[in-house]
C-alpha cells in the first residue's frame, strides 16, 4: 500500500540544505521543517548531491563566503545554482546571491544567482536595525496579512536585470526579488514564526523534484 500511496501523490518532502558556516542557520532549519521540507545543515561539497534546494542564511556575507571558499562549497554551490537548483538567500544570503556587490570588501565574491546589484549594509549599522509590516507579491496577496519583515544591518537591492521580478519594496528600495527559482530577501523571515516565505520557497523546490 505504501507504494500505492506514493503513486497517488504522497506530498513531496524536498531535501533542503542550509549553508551553515556562520549565521542563523538553525532558525531556517526550523522554518523549513515546519513547511514540510527535509532540512539539514550544509557544510561539505559532497552534501550538495543529496539536495533539491539550498538556503543561504543571514549572518555576515564576507565570513560566510570566505568559509564556503575554504571548505570547498562556494564553487560547487555556484555551479548548482547556475544549473537551476532552487536557492533562497536572506540578508547576507541575498548579498551572496548578487551578481555584483557595492560597499562589499574588495576580496568578496558572489554567486550571481540573480542578475542584481546589492548594496551591503545599505540600511545602516546594527543600531539602525528595524522591523516593519510588508506586503510581498506572490507571498502575501494584496488582501491578506502583511508579514513582519526584520532588517538587521540589511542590504537593499539597487538594480535588477530584466529577468528578475521585484516582489517587495520598502521606502522605495527593492527588498525581495525572484529570478527563476532563486529568491532573495533583504530581511529575515526565519525569525518571526511566520513561515509564508519559507513555504513559498519549499513549494518551488517541491515542484522541481522529479516524480519518483
Ligand atoms: N551586513 C551583513 C553582511 O554584509 C548582513 C547582515 C545580516 O545578514 N543580517 O553580510
Largest beta-sheet details = 7 strands, mixed
Q: Please state the average pLDDT score.
A: 93
Helix content: 25-40%
Q: Over the alpha carbons, how many angstroms does the gyration radius reach?
A: 16 Å
The CATH superfamily turns out to be: Class I glutamine amidotransferase (GATase) domain
Low-confidence stretches: 1-7
Q: Separation of termini?
A: 16 Å
Bound molecules: glutamine
CATH topology type:
Rossmann fold
Total beta-strand segments: 12
List the helices and strands in order.
Answer: HEHEEHHEHEEEEEEEEH
Number of domains: 1
Structural class, please? alpha/beta
- Text of the CATH class: Alpha Beta
Count of helical segments? 6
CATH architecture: 3-Layer(aba) Sandwich
Query: What kind of assembly state do the chains in view correspond to?
Result: single chain
Portion of residues in beta strands equals: 25-35%
The global form is globular
Amino acid at each position: 500500500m505504501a507504494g500505492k500511496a506514493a503513486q497517488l501523490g504522497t506530498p513531496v518532502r524536498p531535501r533542503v540544505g542550509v549553508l551553515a558556516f556562520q549565521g542563523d542557520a538553525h532558525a531556517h532549519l526550523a522554518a523549513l521543517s515546519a513547511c514540510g521540507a527535509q532540512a539539514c545543515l550544509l557544510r561539505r561539497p559532497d552534501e550538495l548531491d543529496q539536495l533539491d534546494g539550498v538556503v543561504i542564511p543571514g549572518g555576515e556575507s564576507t565570513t560566510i563566503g570566505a568559509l564556503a571558499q575554504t571548505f570547498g562549497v562556494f564553487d560547487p554551490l555556484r555551479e548548482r545554482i547556475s544549473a537551476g537548483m532552487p536557492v533562497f538567500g536572506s540578508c547576507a544570503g541575498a548579498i551572496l546571491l548578487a551578481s555584483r556587490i557595492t560597499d562589499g570588501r574588495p576580496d568578496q565574491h558572489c554567486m550571481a544567482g540573480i542578475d542584481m546589484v546589492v548594496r551591503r549594509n545599505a540600511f545602516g549599522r546594527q543600531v539602525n536595525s528595524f522591523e516593519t509590516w510588508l506586503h510581498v507579491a506572490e507571498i502575501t496577496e494584496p488582501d491578506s496579512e502583511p508579514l513582519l519583515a526584520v532588517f538587521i544591518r540589511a542590504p537593499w537591492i539597487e538594480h535588477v536585470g530584466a529577468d528578475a521580478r521585484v516582489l517587495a519594496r520598502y521606502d522605495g528600495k527593492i527588498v525581495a526579488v525572484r529570478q527563476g527559482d532563486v529568491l532573495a530577501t533583504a530581511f529575515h523571515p526565519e525569525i518571526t514564526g511566520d513561515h509564508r516565505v519559507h513555504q513559498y520557497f519549499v513549494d518551488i523546490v517541491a515542484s522541481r523534484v522529479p516524480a519518483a
